[in-house]
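User: Fold both of these, please.

Assistant: Here is the first one.
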Amino acid sequence: MPDMRSIKTISIRRLAAGAARVFTCLALVAAVTWAAFSLLHVNSLIAGFSYVLVVLVVAARWGLAESFVTSVAAMLCLNYFFLPPILSLTIADPQNWVALFAFLAIAITASKLSSSARQRANEAQARRIEVERLYQLSRSLMLVDTTRDLGPQIAGHVKEQFGFSGVAYCDGLTGELSMTGSPDVRFEEQVLRDVAVGEASWFVWRKESTKGTEIIVAPVSLGGRTVGSLAATGPALSEPALQAIANLVGIAVERARQQAAASRLEAARQSERLRSALLDALAHDFTTPLTSIKGAITTVRSEYGHKPEEDDLLAVVEEEADKLGGMVDETVDLARIEPGKPRLRRCQLPIANLVQSSVDRMKSLLDGRPLEIQIQEGISSVNADRDMIGLALRQLLGNAVKYSPPGSTIAISANQTDGTITVRIRDQGSGIPQDELESIFERFYRGSRARDSVPGTGLGLSVARDIINAHQGRLWAENLPEGGAQFSFSLPVFGEDRKP
């Protein structure tokens, strides 16, 4: 029971301090009475003003209770020592009754006004101190290190600025709890988590601890959204101060999260730039030896005679060199693409030529796959970048080959409607999970059905989407009722370089 003994000790000390103040007030009244009656022999008017002065001093120094005791004691002394009959509590002249009660009313009123003024001054001083501490806290929270855990820093700064014996912060996203202060301080962890996730309906949760202090738990909100909760125990604070602390912590948390998101975005941007530079450098480094190999093979086949077996081998080498050349060309095209900002070189491009050239370049990958190509008669040309649109179409064709059974048919169609040309690539695969129809266009995303069974990087569809978007078009995917998936992209007949 050590806590109960400490509470009793504190109560006894408070009572002793109150009793000491009361005895001091009575001593002051006695001293004024002795000086006015025995030493100076003043009349009742001077004595009354002296007592009023004592009451005002006591009210300004301690408060209303002490000043009220002083007023009553002063009234009794004034009656006994200065109003006739002297040295008696009775009053002979009725007018002195009026004077006595007027003195009592004036003394009590003056003490109340003085006490109220003192209380307001104390409150103003407390608010000033709170504002200064809030200002210091805001500066501290603006300087938090976003590379370190945020919770311990928040708890430490709040404890330091407001002198709490213990502070705890609970993150609303992760539920992680950070505490600082005396190891004897205990917080309601479940209450902290309930407030952090917005399950608690109160604004401030309060509880009296066994040590006579108050434990408070306040939600940390920003823009009507709860981002965490803050708990503290120690000196009592006003409700506006608690709200201000919670708001400052909320701003600091949101700022730290935005900085972290901006850092991740900048890292991703720098990574994309590095990737583009590396692809560009590698592509150009491969171009020169491939050109030499291609030239040498062509010369050997045309200038020298060979046996049929040798000629077949040279033909294979030449064909593979052409494939490598095509791969290098696509690598150069990829290097030209930054996320959302491909660099375009537009020209008038017939859709039939686009489809045919893409199929020819992918002849080895298609490997005899049945193709159904349907191009609407009289379809218009599009104002587009030949290499970029070709790359997007090849990415969609390659995706259809990888995710459909060998030997199954791949259908390519194109039609024009109201100034828009739509190209569709349909396969006979297993389709796409409904909840992944949008996610598959994100960079490096791999579908749940193909992560372990189909090789790939998850970049192809993202590259195709960036290219189509740069041409003011749209790319989407859908599952067909008869089975399989269909990827479609639409392009305006007239691009940004021409007007109808």
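And the second sequence with its predicted structure:
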Amino acid sequence: MSEAPLTIALAGHANVGKTSLVSALIRDASLLVAEGAGTTTEHYVKTFSIAGTPVLAFVDTPGFARASRINKWLDERGGVGSQRLDDRSVVQAFLDDPDVPAALNPEKEALRGVLKAQVIVYVAGLAHDPQGQNVQEVRLLRRVRVPMIAVLNYVSDDEEAPRAWRDMLNREGIDAIVNLDAMSFPADQERAFYNALRVLRPEHGAAFDRISALRETLKVQNLRKSAVVIAEMLVDSLAFRHVTTHPDAEEAKRYRSTANKRFKEALRAREQECFAELASIYGHGAASIGGASLQVQSWSGEVTDDLFDVEAIRRYGVSAGTLAAIGAVTGSLLDGVGGLGFGTVIGGGLGFAAGLFLGRRVSTSVDGDTLTVGPVDAIQFPSVLLNRSLDCWRQLATRSHADRSAVDVHVAEPVRLGPTGVRALNKHARKCSKRAEWSRIDGRSVPPERGAAVTGLAEVAEELLRKQLESDVPA
């Protein structure tokens, strides 16, 4: 095993996604990427470490635009016969020559990075068939005399473009060619990439094994962390009350509409906080996407209508069949009737409809000069919260770090709990709804017994996350 990290230079034409690939490979969404060419103007090294030990060093380089001019310069200045310089020496002479036109400075910078490498990864963007300059780039990189593989980035359904690239690369002596789409970045493509590197640099095999093991370990750890984050949000939201005091009972009653609005705003904000925490676990936090806030849309397309949007409830709520199966179609979380305290089935679909519109199911009470709004009583509410979090999580957990677009919660149908899971969810939800002191939304400290509810709900959430993970993995 080699003790020093393997240094890998990513090189190629401008605007083919080299920086995006580095972002994806090291799970860093903070690197500057843009649609236009020339975003990277200097080469730089990003080190990938495990337990504090560097195992890989990725060198990101500016894109080539004039490789044919450089090859011509190298041919003319390389000398002849016994005076001929070896390829690396003539490349270094090019870098050291102060008379090289300033227009070639990006190429100089790219070559400085390439000279540091033990492996060169030539990145091919597949927007066009290979051109003459691409051939010149490969020939220029081969002068460095470092083992080279090629990556076909942004692979589309069009097979002609990859075939043309493969033919050109094969003609130029590159046989190790892998697909590695920076934007979707499937796990099998990443494994193929590291397997290709292993063939070229077997002495670093232990490092590749550690990377593979780390990916599996993080998958489990991040899933469990996510389950706890979701459970914390569920407890906070299901136990929450918005309490205000007023000069008298009549004033409290007049404030009910405003208080109800404030109550819902607090729940929306708590859900957004949960989404941001999930993003942070997977390296997609707000600071890592250009400083913008993570945008999460509701089914209706408006953040302000998220939790209480009728379409969102229909999408994320428990099915009528499941509710009927557990005897929990009607009633509230607080009524204490029935085996689970959720009431009994009354008319099947009629009961489902009655429990659907959770916007009408928020408790409001006036006790003297005190107005209390909450908790949400609707049978659907715990499932809506849980399934929306799952939908956000599933995208963050599988998302490439080169993808800087907004997360849209309604992209795909979430995996749902079966009757047993719904029973467990509702059992814990009922406990939370009776314990206002368990909610941290108002910034209060919470009693230790809250932890048991978080643990129970985390188990329910983890079951859902694992089911989703299994459904996303091809057979």
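Residues 6-200 form a domain with the Rossmann fold fold (CATH 3.40.50.300).
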